[in-house]
Automatic annotation (TrEMBL):
GO terms for cellular component: cytosol; nucleus. The keyword Chaperone applies. Keywords: Chaperone. One of its GO terms (biological process) is proteasome assembly. Chaperone protein which promotes assembly of the 20S proteasome as part of a heterodimer with PSMG1. It comes from Acer negundo (Box elder). Belongs to the PSMG2 family. PANTHER family: PROTEASOME ASSEMBLY CHAPERONE 2. The keyword Flavoprotein does not apply. This is Proteasome assembly chaperone 2.
Length: 281
């Protein structure tokens, strides 16, 4: 992975926090990062060129004024006011190369002085075993702070550790050994075989990112929410709010329009396509 800085731009060396999405159902992690980039007025500082991420290109996702800026597969943003770096991923990873991609990202984070990585992602609502909607949508987490994935601060915020995390289960152990560079060659097809229920969570991108960041000695916190495909804007707000809490940001200072604290990204105007042509009705 190569990191290319834009002209006259730089990463904040004092910023030790990195926020990025893990692609999953409903693209909630990506939407939440969009919301954080827009609301914190983060600036584009460069992009990452990785051989394991599929190419794509699009218009600037945040500015309504045509400035000739392009949106690329992996872009880095710096929020100097909030003291964090954000990486937005806009295209999927080549099949079977998720662990290698995660290693590359971990190298980028460690090389650039990051100490705490926050990964935002979603989980399939159909696999939610113990549904409790008494307090609204629930945030789940997975942290490298303790061996069992728990974190005292996350618990204080009222979040629940991902119950399905078991570092002794075969798939989680495979991720750990792969992240440390000790995986056996005959284990390479583990996630290509028919998966059992217990293999679902470690087969997701967030699990590979968690394992590789942890292997590099970085603190990593995965923030997760269950959702279904469809309009996931509400889930994105929830996940962005959770990220703000763990990073101790103050969304009330974001100064969104019309009394709102969040700044809605320009690209969200057509996130589910243009409105229908009313003449057909």
């Amino acid at each position: 992975m190569e990191f290319i800085l834009e002209e006259n731009k730089h990463l904040n060396k004092e910023s030790q926090n990195l926020v990025l999405p893990a692609l999953s159902i409903g693209n909630v992690g990506q939407l939440a990062v969009d919301l954080l980039v827009s609301s914190t007025r983060a600036e584009t500082v460069g992009y990452l060129d990785d051989p394991f991420v599929l190419p794509c290109v699009g218009n600037d996702a945040y500015c309504p004024i045509p400035g000739g800026d392009l949106a690329l597969p992996l872009q880095a943003y710096e929020s100097f006011s909030s003291g964090m770096t954000l990486v937005q991923q806009r295209s999927p990873v080549v099949k079977g190369m998720m662990i290698e991609y995660a290693k590359n990202l971990a190298e980028f984070a460690a090389t650039n002085g990051k100490k705490h990585v926050v990964v935002l992602s979603s989980l399939d609502f159909g696999r939610w075993q113990k549904i409790d909607m008494s307090s609204g949508l629930q945030i789940y987490y997975l942290s490298s702070t303790n061996a069992d994935g728990t974190d005292d601060y996350c618990e204080q915020l009222g979040w629940k550790r991902l119950q399905e995390y078991n570092p002794e289960q075969r798939s989680w152990k495979y991720l750990t050994t792969s992240a440390e560079g000790n995986a056996m060659q005959d284990s390479s097809s583990l996630f290509e075989d028919e998966l059992e229920d217990e293999d679902y969570y470690p087969s997701l991108p967030f699990a590979a990112l968690f394992s590789c960041f942890k292997a590099r000695g970085l603190k990593v916190t995965c923030l997760l929410c269950y959702c279904s495909e469809g309009d996931n804007i509400a889930d994105a707000f929830q996940l962005a709010e959770a990220a703000s809490k763990i990073l101790k940001l103050k969304p009330d200072n974001f100064q969104g329009g019309e009394g709102e604290k969040w700044v809605i990204p320009f690209s969200w105007q057509t996130v589910y396509g243009p409105p229908p042509d009313m003449s057909i009705f």
